[in-house]
Amino acid sequence: MNAPTQPLSPYRAIDRAEWSRLAAGLDQPLTETEVVELRGIGDRLDLTEVREVYLPLSRLLSLYATSSKGLGAATSAFLQEPDSTTPFVVGVAGSVAVGKSTIARLLRELMSRWPGTPRVELVTTDGFLYPNAELERRGLMDRKGFPESYDRRALLSFLTEVKSGAAEVRAPFYSHMRYDIIPDATVVVRRPDVVIVEGLNVLQPPPAPNDVAVSDLFDFSIYVDADPAHIAQWYVDRFLALRKGAFTNPSSYFNVFAHLTDDEAVTTAMGYWNEINMPNLLENVLPTRHRATLVLRKGADHAVESVQLRKV
Asked: How many whole angstroms from its chain centre is CA 183?
């Protein structure tokens, strides 16, 4: 009897053991102290996870970026014009509390250690949220993080300038302490080798068929995936940690939560998760997973269990 035929898929499915073997021969460029500094609250990132998962991923991304740069130079030579290759743009998407911010920071550090991509910049889409005053005016404060809470045109304009080769591009700056955009503060990007763009909704399809999607301006995209029940627990754990840390700062927007009891804090966190973050995940974020070039699937302990890589 013939073996059952595996269903066709545009992705290569790679388990953790197979993926970790790709790290053989690669030097670990980060120290334990550096990994701790990059790790977000609640993330369980260690040197083993960096070496077995993210070091090979950073190498793959650097190879993609270097190949793209070579293709750009060859195209310019063919057209008999100066090389006008633009930055390689990587999108990182996933739920609140899934660890995408840590992954984006980590990839920035790792990619900058490879010879072909020494200059890497990171921009988060938090900077393209409408200011709180505008969200209040539009009645969207309770939907902060949903697609409609972002200035999509400004984000598209920023990425269009980056991919057009502009010498300098500025993005708004968002303060998690103040939970708002900081007027006149910007993040400046000056034609690096790579720009990493991290955010909830970066893989959203365009709102209308003839519109440009943000992801149309990406050269590579990553979706950080996990079971929603695990993400909910990570969200609560992070809220409890912040209550004892950042929330205690009198300048913090969330200082009102600093004196909650454990039970009150869990109830409050689950309220935010069930009313805002889970609906956004299920309605807007998770449905974009299939648009990613690569999917990292995490288990309950935050460790990556498998990788799906789109075939070239």
From this structure: 24
Residue at token pair 């929603």 = 228
pLDDT score for 1: 56
CA distance 180 to 196: 21
- Paired sense of beta strands 120-124 and 294-298, if any: unpaired
Angstrom distance (rounded) from CA 249 to CA 95: 26
Q: Which of 12, 9, 11, 110 is nearest to 52 (CA)?
A: 110
Express each pLDDT in 202-216 by its tens digit: 999 998 889 999 999
CA dist 96 and 242 (Å) reads: 14
What is the rounded distance in angstroms from the CA atom of residue 51 to the CA atom of residue 110? 10
Backbone angles phi, psi at 201, to 5 degrees: -110, 25
Beta bridge partners of 169: 189
Structure token pair of residue 179: 């939970």
Give the tokens for residue 255. 């200082």
Longest Cα separation, the chain: 70
The tens digit of pLDDT for each residue in 156-187 reads: 999 999 999 999 999 999 999 999 999 999 99
Tokens read off for 176: 């998690």
